[in-house]
Design brief:
By secondary structure, the protein is α/β, with parallel strands linked by helices. It is built from six helices and six strands. Helix 1 (2-9) crosses helix 6 (149-175).
Length: 177
Amino acid sequence: MEALADACAADNYPAMIAGVLSDRVDAGGLATAARRGIATAALPRADFADKAAHEAAIDDQLHAWDAEFVCLAGFMRLLSAEFLAPWQGRIINIHPSLLPRHKGLDTHARALAAGDAVHGCSVHHVTAGMDEGPVIAQARVPVLAGDTPETLAARVLAEEHKLYPAALKMLIGQSAR
């Protein structure tokens, strides 16, 4: 989120952040956004009767902000096909692996355990399946001798911070055509 906020602060970037939303009141991104003067909203799952009601509240907030694109960053819940349908092509996520390899959690440890020579990150369209949407862009990093999940994660994170803003910019350019 912070990398996207940094990119959006540049005069030549084609987007601005309408708001930062989390399903956790204590999410660090909310405090970071508030310090930057970006609108925030916390919609804890426990405040809603079910997933459909929670997703309806998220959708309402996105529309209240007049959001055109949704960029997930650390949102650890699958969204329903019903929620995603109106956002199709305009909701994206970043994942710390070269999809389709290593969907889900613990990607760095899994890449090391698999003996992967190359690892990285992917920006992808969000679908109702876990990390299954079409890939928009990827960045690769070598897996080095002696890497730990932590050292590999740090190199991948540096690439994520460059890739996510670049992929969003590309997607916005495509939608403007």
